[in-house]
Amino acid sequence: MTRYSEPPVESLNTGKGAVVGQNWRSLWSLDPKITFLNHGSFGACPLAVLERQWVLRSQMEQEPVRFFALELEPLLDAARQDLATFLKADAADLAFVPNATTGVNTVLRSLCISNPDRASLQPGDELLTTNHEYNACRNALDFTAQITGAKVVVAEVPFPIEAPDEAIAVVLNQVSPRTRLVLLDHVTSQTGLIFPLQSLIRQLTDRGIEVLVDGAHAPGMIDLNLKALGATYYTGNCHKWLCAPKGAAFLYVQADRHSHLRPLTISHGANSPRIDRSRFRLEFDWTGTADPTPYLCIPDAIQFMGSLLPGGWDALRQYNRATVLTARAGLCKALDVAPPCPDSMIGSMAVVPLPDGSAEHLQASLFQRHLEVPIIPWQGSVNRLIRVSAQIYNTPADYDVLTEAVLLLIKEEKGI
Description:
By secondary structure, the protein is of the alpha/beta class.
């Protein structure tokens, strides 16, 4: 793993952890003409990590047979161990997948298959989720229900929301004797909420219900402890807030559920005669020829992002959270709206309700002004939301420019 030096000491305010005088954006290849406030959608990989990926790709292409047959397995093991340490999990319980959507699909597809330890989903079984679930994963849930005869049940978590307990009550109220699995976001994509998973998972598992967490945004945004969290399955992206290359994600599976899971692609590991590695590892580590370098760069991304501030990852998470809360407060004040959720439910993304109108038109108008920020349609008391992200390369001036543009465009929509 490449080691990165700390930024110059003079670029840091050692009093309160604030960043001054450092051009953090120069560490990324982001278009300088764009005010980029949408790290949450696809992340952005630092130049130094991309350089490490180039080295690994060169190693792969210099002698592909040697790389895949001899070098890849120990490289994957080392990367998985570093990721496990970061997530506070056992490496044996982690499998690499290209994205969290694949992780969700892997678990759901496995529910359709009977095995000696567990029966498959049956007609009338219930799959519980919320109205905040990411569309791609909701589609996977609906597909699973269609082919098994199971039923998707949706808990309508309110938004705006006043307290985490509201989400807990609504979800638990939808649990029934037929509930087989609950799919929950850790950080909701549309509304930027951190769901109160610790309490929800404990109460659901006490009732014998499996919990699958879609943690697409959580790694790098939240200080994760997967062992303590207790989810049956947890999948998360490493290309978002960890800033690894695109195509890097993981699936965590509790040890007693390994035999329940098969990868989406069945390959050589299904009948491998090897006994030095688990069947879980053999199947998930090789699903066919692909570029594994995003996985191998995860340790470099962890180390690089953790080296930017003297306080490491804790300081980075705190800095990004403080930045986005300040940005949200500024937007709320300018738009004369109340914050739609308590600060305790915010990480590095936040949304603010907007006056009714076309989400698509407003987003296009903002991009014409070189502002990259999502305007999200919503079904509730308001019909569109603006979602801002905060990564260390963002500055207060970015959000000032955004606020000014939003106010101007809303006035234009109203014909003022």
